[in-house]
Amino acid sequence: MKFMKLGSNPDTFQDDGNEVSIVATELVSDVTVRIGTTKFYLHKFPLLSKCARFQKMIPTTGDENIEIHIHDIPGGAKAFEICAKFCYGMIVTLNAYNVIAARCAAEYLEMHETVDKGNLIYKIDVFLGSSIFRSWKDSIIVLGTTKAHLPWSEDLKLVSHCIDSIASKASSDTSKVEWSYSYNRKKLPTENGLDLEWNGVKKQQFVPHDWWVEDLTDLDIDSYKQVITAIKTKGMVRKDVIGEAIKAYTYKKLPSLSKVSMVHGDAKVRAMLVTITCLLPSEKGSVSCSFLLKLLKATNLLKCGELCRKELMKRIGRQLDEASVSDLLIPTVDGEATVYDIDMILSIVEEFVRQDNKNAQKHNGGEVDGHVQAPSASMIKVAKVVDGYLAEVAKDPNTPILKFIHLAETMSVNSRPVHDGLYRAIDMYLKEHPSLGKSDKKRLCSLMDCKKLSPDACAHAVQNERLPLRTVVQVLYHEQTRASAAVTIRADSICVGSYESSRSGATTNTEDEWDGVMAVEDLSLSKTTTKLDDADKNHCNGKISTNGKAKGGTTPKKAALGKMTMPGKGQSGERSSSDSSDSAILQKLELPKRTPSRSTKPAAA
């Protein structure tokens, strides 16, 4: 820390312990200065020789003792004592902690050059310009002390000088950073100050781009806002570094935010959250989506205002593809029936879809050769996260079905290449809402496309008693269609590859792939598929024997189709009341009876 000593005479100020300061001298005190509850017994001549204000207050004639009351001097009694000692020529030490108070008090007492050459104001200004404002840490300390001396520090431009000094250093090229700074986060070995040598030559140590971030976390929110604004104005620091600085400051001031716990606070905390939101760089990716969602959760709980909330939701919507399901679990405020704020997430997802569609139209014109453009990678990621979020809110018995459906429908049809996640969410909702009506069940299940379910999901769905019968029929139909097509392809592959099979004695890659995809537990071929398999044998012109073996090859594994237990007359529920058209379709599919040895798979969790 920089410091400056003024004066040469010994310090003879004596404090009697009762807030009384007396100058130990042979001369009797002829002026008493009262500042608050503290009294200073001084002499006229030293004060009049340096302070123009005392020249106006103290008469030069007369020997009587004069008492002066001063109530509004910046810095109070301590700052006045520094000025008084300077008047007596006593040794005074100035540093980053007391220099602002002394400068403001000297201005109050009018200790200018016009009164005496080399007066206190001049000496302090030289000290500030040559030492304090050239020091990184001293500038931060000084800025922190200016708030206690407003409006004097503001009017004297001390605040602006501090801010400019800090912002200029933070914006400097890292190769020119030669001063000390605090940096306790994980760093590279060279950033830790290790003396790494290679072939006896000391390597150059590198300064991280965010070297200044931690030192600024000690500032109050008003000073911090001014510094970050000045850094932004200079335009020399990357936006992601500024975002990292704001994130570090927020976690320092609101540690509960980083722990994703309930954030409590008063008007001061609310004002801080609003300021932090306004300081965030507008560029996408300057801060993580997870941090934005934590801010949104805090502002929502503390009711920081609609404008702040909407700004955060807009920013989150632009980079929602970075979010996880846990990030989106924002609890509702008091008085809401649901556990999580579904409406807020719905608004965020709608903002993302709007931005994604806008970008797609900008780059691709929306359609290519009359076909709808394929969904972006970001859209597919968000759809997967939304399905995971739906599965979480489905566990809440108070989640309205209309909100569930609306959120699911917000994502476009082609944004889900696989509907397993959506099926899991629907199954969870049906499990937690057993009293759901038949029409609501059908509407809920119509959200998913049975053709986009994986074989495992299909195997689960055909034995899921919670699903409407019509949905199960659709799953079975598409599963059998897919199995039939796959069997045909397998048979053709065996015929074409019989020559190579006879040479190598190994099965084809096509058969291996088929076994990996279609061998699903608790499923068996229907009669329709068996007939199709016989036709495939004839198609191969006798190259496959009646026992299903390929000449010179191995036995192909049979693909399995879904089995479903049909409810009997005594069963109640959705399926017992299904219409005759569903039953007719089931008869056409020739569903096999459930074998007692097979067990039904548990419902999706």
TrEMBL record:
It comes from the Eukaryota. Residues 29-96 form the BTB domain. InterPro entries: BTB/POZ_dom (IPR000210), NPH3/RPT2-like (IPR043454), NPH3_dom (IPR027356), SKP1/BTB/POZ_sf (IPR011333). The keyword Zinc does not apply. Residues 532-605 are annotated as: Disordered. It holds the Pfam family BTB. Residues 210-482 form the NPH3 domain. Residues 546-563 have a biased composition (Low complexity). Pathway: Protein modification; protein ubiquitination. Keywords: Ubl conjugation pathway. One of its GO terms (biological process) is protein ubiquitination. Gene3D superfamilies: Potassium Channel Kv1.1, Chain A. Belongs to the NPH3 family. This is NPH3 domain-containing protein.
